[in-house]
Write a structure and sequence with these properties.
By secondary structure, the protein is mainly beta. It has 2 domains: 289 residues, monomeric porin ompg (Porin); 76 residues, no CATH class. The protein is 14% helix and 38% strand. It contains 6 helices and 22 strands. The strands form 4 sheets. The protein has a 12-stranded antiparallel β-barrel with strand order 1-4-5-9-10-11-12-16-17-20-21-22. The longest helix is centred in the middle third of the chain and has 20 residues.
Length: 497
């Protein structure tokens, strides 16, 4: 998801038996004590007589029909093979073999799932992903790390379903869900940040012209100095905010303190919205597959199924509001004993996201005042941007990663089910505009990851399930208010129809 990733392997953990053994249960065999067949008769000899049924036959032990070889008698209480169970085991054997054949050229690589590998025909893969997020740092427009005093803690989930229509074509559906989204802000740290400074300057730009008009200062520089030194108005004074709302600066209250109160109120943290995110659907086609190189391309769609339009800023909506179309490229290069993988997804927005403007005075509510109505009797003015916003993504969104994988079975066969991974991840989100006005600057995020997996397909007998743990650590970015780190847990199971 942007893609913001004590449980045991429990998917498909039924024990499989080797396929030949499964089939042999349906075959009858002769008893070891059966006599050897007589040699073929000579042409001049008399044909052998058909043996007569023994006289000791009873209804419970019937004699064999004439000309039929007598089979071994089953002992009382002997277990009768369950053909249904046998067929299921044989089907699972076919499933695990087909999956293993898709992975590498060596059985030691069975623990690695290549990014470009499509599923075998009629094979279904279900994956549950648990993601925990925490972060307290971000990056400014120059790429310098910054601490805004904000601390994020969130928990997300995702269900991924994939199905192989053919050995080359795979359909994938991903449904993300946010269950917890908490933000805490340290006011003292935030006041020392560049973000606070920018907002403070915007408020001064609204107030200073009125102060000059009243003769309290002569120009912008002297007004700014006076405000910084604690300038206060003798009477309570209403001030119109960019949102069209009116705030009142109390009598004898320093203007700087009033502005500070308004800014801190606008970023006051609150529990974020939980719910379904934006569902993704993709179709991948394996265009090239050799023992060394695998290349898959695909098409994808992201649907605005998550809450967004009427969610106030303080609640941090789980959706983004855009319907996008995308191109997917995935490539694997097998360089035994390592596998290099590359994945890239480029998305273009097909719509403008509708969103209602939030209040500056109470950010957990939508704005009820008119930003286009300028009252000349009140200090300040609305910015003229309507409450009903139309947000447009100005460019193409990119996300992807490069990955190195190593199967630990190359070290010792005892570690055959395990593999380790290293990632370099990136995402680039272009500028957002609202009715011709800049809404959000271009954002870049970069992170490094390490991961560990245990795969049942490398066991004997094979189990069609796997578990992966991954740790993402932010290492760079631009214009990122927060660049959190995360823990991801993947639980995967397979089934063949």
């Amino acid at each position: 998801m942007r893609s913001y990733q004590g449980i045991v392997l429990s998917l498909g953990l039924s024990i499989l038996i080797p396929y030949p053994n499964a089939l042999s249960q349906e075959e009858s065999s002769e008893p070891e004590s059966a006599p050897a067949p007589p040699p073929p008769p000579n042409a001049n000899t008399t044909p052998a007589q058909v043996p007569q049924p023994p006289q000791s036959a009873t209804p419970l032990t019937p004699a064999p029909s004439p000309g039929t070889k007598a089979g071994p008698l089953k002992a009382s209480g002997a277990k009768v093979p369950n053909k249904t169970k046998t067929r299921k085991k044989a089907k699972k054997k076919i499933l695990t073999d087909s999956l293993q054949n898709k992975r590498g050229t060596s059985e030691l690589d069975a623990a690695i799932v290549g990014e470009a590998q499509t599923l075998p025909k009629n094979v279904f893969r279900a994956r549950y992903i648990l993601k925990t997020v925490e972060g307290n740092k971000g990056y400014d427009s120059a790429g310098k790390k910054q601490d805004l005093g904000a601390s994020l803690s969130a928990v997300g989930h995702a269900l991924s379903f994939e199905y192989g229509f053919t050995d080359r074509i795979t359909l994938q559906i991903i449904a993300p869900y946010t269950s917890s989204n908490e933000l805490v802000i340290n006011a003292d740290k935030f006041k020392r940040s560049k973000v606070y400074e920018d907002q403070y300057s915007k408020f001064l730009d609204e107030v200073i012209p009125s102060l000059i008009q009243r003769g309290l200062c002569t120009n912008a520089v002297t007004c700014r100095t006076a405000i910084d030194n604690g300038l206060a108005l003798a009477t309570a004074t209403p001030v119109e905010l960019p949102s069209g709302e009116t705030a009142t600066v109390g009598a004898n209250v320093p203007i700087r303190d009033a502005i500070n109160s308004i800014i801190l109120k606008s970023v006051e943290p609150i529990g974020g919205k939980a719910g379904l995110g934006d569902v993704q659907v993709g179709l991948g086609y394996n265009v090239y597959n050799s023992p060394r190189n695998v290349l898959t391309i695909g098409l994808g769609m992201r649907f605005p199924s998550g809450l967004f339009s009427n969610v106030a800023n303080a609640y941090r909506a789980p959706g983004a509001g855009f319907m996008t179309g995308g191109l997917i490229l995935r490539y694997d290069l097998r360089l035994t004993p390592v596998v290099f993988s590359f994945s890239h997804q480029a998305e273009y927005s097909l719509n403008k996201a509708k969103r209602t403007r939030s209040s500056l005075l109470s950010p957990n509510f939508l704005n009820g005042d008119d930003p286009t109505n300028d009252d000349p009797t009140v200090v300040g003015a609305g910015d003229g941007i309507p409450n009903e916003m139309m947000i447009e993504r100005k460019g193409i969104y990119h996300e992807g990663f490069a990955r190195l994988s190593y199967a630990l079975g190359h070290m010792t066969h005892y570690l055959k089910p395990f593999a380790v991974y290293g990632y370099y991840n990136f995402s680039v989100d272009p500028e957002y505009h609202n009715l011709g006005h800049l809404y959000k600057k271009k954002q870049e995020l970069y992170s490094a990851s390490y991961a560990f997996s245990a795969d049942g397909l490398a066991l004997s007998p094979m189990i069609p399930a796997s578990f992966t743990y991954r740790r993402d650590i932010a290492i760079g970015g631009r214009n990122a208010f927060l660049a959190p780190d995360s823990h991801l847990f993947y639980f995967t199971g397979y089934y063949k129809f």
